[in-house]
Amino acid sequence: MSLAPGNGPVQITQEQLQARISELGHKIRADYAGKEPHLICVLNGAFLFHADLVRTLHMPCTIDFLQASSYGDAKQSSGEVKLVKDLQFPISDRHVILVEDIVDTGITMNYLLHYLQGRGPASLKVAALLSKPSRRKVEVPVEYLGFTIPDAFVYGYGLDRAQFDRNLPFITSQE
Ligand code: 5GP
Q: What is the pLDDT of residues 46-82, one digit of tens each?
């Protein structure tokens, strides 16, 4: 799904977010029928997406959280990823879905996928609310993608603008 192609501002409403997340939830539920997926939220940006996504699943599942840092308060990635908060629970033999807010260069996701793969999950897939493919430096597989957006800095619905505006119920790129 693609929104706001070209140079226009990105604007994803609360209704569009919920409708798309519900579609992703249905797909996950079908794909993981008979399994108990383990949904790992990448803090802080994915906290609302993760919370809304798990509520659409209506199936046995477990959750955990981790936090990686590469941005600080800047709008440009430093290119270096640090694990700031580790998992609480083991993932060996679990069907893991890594839930991320946005894939930009792909550097963070690539780092996290290698990190999690090393812990022996039964399977490992990615759910990302947003993707900016034009910015990609490392290709990463995103099985469940909410919206493809152009190269613009977006905030709201979990994503921050210098740590503020995460509580906006919509996503925007407007100043
Ligand atoms: P990547 O490593 O893919 O370049 O960056 C991933 C992380 O950068 C995301 O998890 C998010 O925290 C941050 N990021 C990338 N693009 C944006 C953006 O447009 N807005 C905000 N608020 N964060 C972004």
A: 999 999 999 999 999 999 999 998 755 555 666 789 8
Amino acid found at 16: Q
Domain boundaries, the chain: 11-68+82-173
For atom 11 of ligand 1, which residue has the closest CA? 102
Beta-ladder partners of 81: none
Phi/psi for 42 (5° steps) reads -90, 105
Nearest CA to ligand 1 atom 15: 104
Closest atom of ligand 1 to CA, residue 155: 22
pLDDT tens, position by position, 4-46: 555 679 999 999 999 999 999 999 999 999 999 999 999 999 9
Q: Is the CB of 69 under 6 A from ligand 1?
A: no
Length of the chain: 175
- Name the CATH topology of 11-68+82-173: Rossmann fold (3.40.50)
